[in-house]
């Protein structure tokens, strides 16, 4: 039955039907969750920075820790020139992190379990770093596809491979996040069904679910980190044209 399927949790549901010139722009449960993520993240940051005490409290410490974490990530992977892109990288990390974590709350919706969402994020990153590279380097940007010291005779073979590898970045970036979120939530749903079906004998599967849930919390944070650090590496490539 549909309601028993572990994939039911990923179903997009229209909350407000909106049609604009034949385009379906309906407000869905995914849209609602993204707005909730933005509001919650903004409230957390605003609450943490409202007092700015010399001895930080709990919320201020969390915000400062997140700030330092992203600042160090940019410094280590991009260098001093990456500081101007801090607002975007910080926003990207916080958005993905909150989407991943809030998706683990029972009866919520995991935005990042849909490849269209993760691909949109990856496409923004891909287009953004490509524009930065073109603005900074002009036609020299295309030397990025020519490995240093490449013999001329091998250029017709390796240059297309480099181009394909570059164009595949948004695909691999989006699929990595989407696949991890969808697989983990599906597994939790499957084992949750075992616990309900077994009743009093479901204690062992329940303990196993707790372990999986703890693992999913780690994966949620790790995938936000991986997506963001890869964005920093792509940004470093765009700025310094490094292979």
Describe this entry's structure for a reader.
With 243 residues, this protein is mostly helical. It has one domain. Helix content is 67%, strand content 4%. It is built from seven helices and four strands. It has helices at residues 29-49, 58-77, 86-102, 115-137, 155-167, 169-198, 203-240; strands at 14-16, 19-20, 23-24, 27-28. The strands form two sheets. A two-stranded antiparallel sheet has the order 1-4. A hairpin with a 2-residue loop joins strand 2 (19-20) and strand 3 (23-24). It is globular. The termini are far apart. The relative contact order is 0.13. The mean pLDDT is 86.
Keywords for this entry:
243 residues, mainly alpha, two-stranded antiparallel sheet, globular
Compose a concise summary of this entry.
With 243 residues, this protein is mostly helical.
Blueprint of the fold:
Elements: E1 14-16, E2 19-20, E3 23-24, E4 27-28, H1 29-49, H2 58-77, H3 86-102, H4 115-137, H5 155-167, H6 169-198, H7 203-240
Antiparallel strand pairs: 1-4, 2-3
Distance between the termini: 50 Å
**Mean pLDDT rating:** 86
- Order of the strands making up the biggest sheet: 1-4
**Structural class determined from secondary elements:** mainly alpha
Given as residue ranges, the uncertain stretches (5+ residues, pLDDT < 50) are none
Biggest sheet layout: 2 strands, antiparallel
- Provide the helix percentage: 55-70%
The domain tally reads: 1
Radius of gyration: 22 Å
Total beta strands: 4
What would the principal axes of the Cα set say about the shape?
globular
- By DSSP (H or I, 4+ residues per run), the number of helices equals 7
Beta-strand level of the residues, as a percent range?
A: under 5%
Q: What is the helix/strand order?
A: EEEEHHHHHHH
């Amino acid at each position: 039955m549909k309601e028993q399927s572990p994939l039911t949790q990923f179903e997009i549901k229209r909350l407000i039907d909106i049609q604009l010139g034949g385009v379906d722009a309906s407000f869905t449960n995914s849209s609602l969750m993204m707005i909730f993520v933005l509001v919650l993240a903004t409230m957390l940051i605003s609450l943490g920075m409202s007092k700015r005490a010399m001895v930080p409290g709990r919320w201020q410490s969390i915000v400062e820790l997140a700030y330092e974490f992203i600042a160090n990530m940019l410094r280590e992977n991009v260098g001093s020139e990456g500081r101007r892109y801090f607002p975007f990288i910080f926003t990207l990390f916080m958005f993905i992190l909150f989407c991943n974590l809030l998706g683990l709350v029972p009866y919520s919706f995991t935005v990042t379990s849909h490849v269209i969402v993760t691909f949109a994020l990856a496409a923004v990153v891909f287009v953004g770093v490509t524009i930065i590279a073109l603005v900074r380097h002009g036609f020299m940007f295309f030397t990025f596809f020519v490995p240093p010291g490449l013999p001329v005779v091998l250029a017709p073979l390796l240059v297309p491979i480099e181009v394909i590898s570059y164009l595949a970045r948004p695909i691999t970036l989006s699929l990595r996040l989407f696949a991890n979120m969808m697989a983990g939530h599906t597994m939790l749903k499957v084992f949750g069904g075992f616990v309900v079906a077994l009743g009093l004998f479901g204690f062992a599967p329940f303990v196993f679910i707790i372990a999986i849930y703890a693992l999913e919390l780690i994966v949620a944070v790790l995938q936000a980190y991986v997506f963001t650090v890869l964005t920093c590496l792509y940004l470093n490539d765009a700025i310094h044209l490094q292979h």
